[in-house]
Amino acid sequence: MTSVVTEEHVQFCFKVLIAHLEKKPDPKPNFPNDPYPLFVTWHKKTRDGELHLRGCIGSFTPLALHGGLRKYALISALQDRRFSPITLEEIPHLTCAVSLLTNFEVAKDYLDWEIGKHGIWIEFIQLNGQKETATYLPEVMVEQQWTKEEAIQSLLRKGHFAGQITKEYCQKAIVLTRYQSQKLEQPYKGD
């Protein structure tokens, strides 16, 4: 598969965030405006070199890259409810990852995917009959060292499922879509 994520995509996200925080005009993108489902992820590097998540939000709806990266660079940096907004002082300690999602396929069942290859998006029915969704990008299962079953259990909890998780429930109530991600992560390189 040809790589579609470029350094320009990642550096554009940094420039968008910096321009916003400095109250300056948005930078102009210098790459094709193709539509992709996408995620923007921010990590902060600690003194010992470890990366800690600072924000990760995206869209499964294909978005033109110019507007999609601009939008989700800011949303993931400033509005991820799990974290305080990123500040200008943090920029030298951050990495940004752009994930462009491809090859969506509805799986045969909830275990029809490969760890390290596929991201997974599940749709499931709550105990009250309401439909919910949750997703993990491909790298999450590897980073967490989860089995497929552990990843599914975690996704159900991420989607606020409060019931007992059984094999029977998973077979009956989960529709899983697998996808692949092309990802590039870098620190800010300046101008």
Could you name the key traits of this structure?
single chain, 191 residues, alpha+beta, Glycoprotein, Type 4 Pilin, Dna Ligase, domain 1, 2 domains, six-stranded antiparallel beta sheet, 6 strands, 28% helix
What does the model show?
This protein is α+β, with helices and mostly antiparallel strands. The chain folds into two domains: 7-102 and 181-187, Glycoprotein, Type 4 Pilin (2-Layer Sandwich); 103-179, Dna Ligase, domain 1 (2-Layer Sandwich). Helix content is 28%, strand content 34%. It contains five helices and six strands. The chain has helices spanning 7-21, 65-78, 138-144, 148-158, 167-173; strands at 35-45, 51-64, 94-106, 119-125, 131-136, 175-187. A six-stranded antiparallel sheet has the order 2-1-3-6-4-5. A hairpin with a 5-residue loop joins β1 and β2 (51-64). α1 crosses α2. It is elongated, with a radius of gyration of 18 Å. The two termini are 30 Å apart.
